[in-house]
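BUG: 3D viewer hangs when loading the predicted structure for this chain

Environment: internal workstation, default settings.
Expected: structure renders.
Actual: progress bar stalls at 90%.

Input used:
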Amino acid sequence: MRLKYDFRPMEKSTRFTFGDQVRDNMFWTLASGVPIWSAWSVLYFYAAANGWVPKLDSVSASPTWFVLMFFVIRFWQSFHFYWIHRLIHVPWLFKHVHYLHHRNVNVGPWSGLSMHPVEHILYYSGVLIHFLLPSHPIHVLFHLFALNLGAVYSHSGFDKIILRDKKTMKAGSFHHQLHHRHFECNYGSEEIPLDRWYGSFHNGTSTASKRIRARKKLIFSRR
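Structure tokens produced before the viewer hung:
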């Protein structure tokens, strides 16, 4: 528990499906997330098989682009997530869609993909980049798995792994943990500093908390 962001246990509450946070998170991940993730996969590979999208048939066709595309995917994923996330914080979408994900204040690994089906559709829609840029099947699989594993990582609830009583590799995202605590901040990830550029960055300090509270008051006064 030494490096857990929030020491409280997962909740048992009527605001969660089945009255249990973990079961709620597992249900929405498996009943909504997995089918929609699979549907995006099927859509791309069906389009690629029918020659409707640009694709790399082999690594040797363009080895430089093959390698570069992995970096494009990571930065695109961060860029896309920020703007999709800002969109679902629009009051109507938050109230009817994104609220389900934000029932999780103290997050755990299953919380990352615990979303409303509409949010799942939007979250995985970043795969549409492969309908525009030449991609190898490995790129698409990398992108799809990165979306899933990234959500688990950013909601793990822990800062680092401890091995032999020493802090080792990062195991979570304090950046996103703060989003679940304060809501109107840290919409993106840390690959691209969009939150810094658009005034929504929270670094965990009391000064940042005061600034974000003032920002929230301004946002809610407009609603």
